[in-house]
Structures are given as C-alpha cells and as structure tokens.
Amino acid sequence: MASGTDEMTNKLAAVLDLVDYGAERSRLLVQVWRALAAGGPVTGSQIDEFVSDLGIKAEDADQFLRQMTERDDDDSIVGIMGLSLNDHPHKFTVDGVQMATWCAADTLFLPAMLGQTATIESESPESKEKVRLTVGPEGVQTLDPADAVISFVVPEETDMTSVASIWMTFCQHIFFFTSQGEAEQWANGRDDIRIMSLDEGFELTKQLWAGVLSFAKELPVGGVKV
C-alpha cells in the first residue's frame, strides 16, 4: 500500500480514457447530475429536453446513460455515475436534499460538478465508526475525525460498461476510515489498495474527472441547462 496522487493517476490511466466522454456527453451527464440533485427522479421528458438542447441523437444518449444509471419502475433516473436517490453507504446532502453516493470517492468530486457544498456521513467498514466531512467545489472544508483517510483501488481490469460493473470494480473497495492504521488493517494483504489523505483523494478525483469538470464549470450554480 502507498499514497500519492501522481502514482495513482498513472496507474489509473485507463480510467482517464473511460471518463473522457467528449463535449456533448459530458454536458448531458452534468445536466442529469444537477437535475437529480434537485431531489427527485429525472424523467424521460427531462432527458428528451436535455438531448434536444444539446443536439445529441436520442439513441446515442440513451445508450450512454443506461450504462451508468439506476432506474425506478417508471424508467426515470434515480442514480447516475455515483450520485443516487437510493440507499447507499455514503450519505450526501446538498442544499437540504439528502442523497447518497456509490463510493466514498464520489463525495469528493461531485460537489465541483454540482457547483455546491456537500455534507457527507459515511461508516468505516472496519470499525463501523462514522466519518463526517464537508466538501466544496474547491476541496475538503471540514473533516471528523481529523485523521480520516480514504482507500482507492487499482484494478487490474477496468469495466465501466454497467452500474453493476462499476460497483464491482470500484465502489466495493473505496471507503472512508477513521485513521491510517484502521485502513491498513482493513486492506492487509491487498496490493491493489492505496490509502490516501482526503486532500490527496480530492486532488486525485479532480484529475480523473478534469475533462467533465471543464464542462460543469460552464453552467451557473444550480443550473441545469447549457
């Protein structure tokens, strides 16, 4: 196990390619994230409006979204690429709207995508103790306990072609811990896990999502239209 954002970024080069969606798809992803953060499912009619405004082919947009979205019985989007209205381990609240994220790392980059500050509460899988933090678009603002860390996985193969594969490849291995020692105990014997400070984790996710973030910054705070 080791730390360092440069090392992690190099080892996750394949992921960098996977999240390079191009302009239109990146804008669509940001639109849906921000619509979901309003607190309700994102309906088909909303998606149609986004797609029309962006000039994307409907079938291309549908294929893109379905590999990264959770859906309800009405086929509305209730979760997309880390942000969810469903129950997940990492509680994520923005502007009074209580949501959750698929993995701990999602809580670090999503505030920048939403252009808003989030409060997070998550349970360590080792001690079951709570880690609480506040994250804004520019970084971690508060952290309790102060020595809390985050685990990252360096998978041998990256698969982001479905929600299930994203969960299996990444989310089941990325958690908050109350201390370095606790995290190392949890990751004992695993060469694919890196333990990082929360500031290092924020910088890593910022680098990984830099392409999409550039389009998110085009939107006004709270906006959902390009």
Please name the defining characteristics of this protein:
single chain; 226 residues; alpha+beta; Beta-Lactamase; eight-stranded antiparallel β-sheet; three-stranded antiparallel β-sheet; 10 helices; 39% helix
Protein model, in words:
By secondary structure, the chain is of the alpha+beta class. The protein has a single domain, classed as Beta-Lactamase (2-Layer Sandwich). Helices cover 39% and strands 22% of the residues. The protein is built from 10 helices and 11 strands. It has helices spanning 5-11, 13-18, 23-36, 44-54, 58-66, 106-114, 163-169, 180-186, 198-208, 210-216, and strands at 69-71, 77-80, 83-84, 90-94, 97-101, 118-123, 130-136, 139-144, 149-153, 176-177, 193-197. The strands form 2 sheets. Strands 1-2-3-5-4-6-7-8 form an 8-stranded antiparallel beta sheet, with helices on one face. Helix 1 (5-11) packs parallel to helix 9 (198-208), helix 3 (23-36) packs antiparallel against helix 4 and helix 3 (23-36) crosses helix 10. The protein is globular and about 50 Å long. It starts with a helix and ends in a 10-residue tail after the last helix. The relative contact order is 0.19. The mean pLDDT is 89.
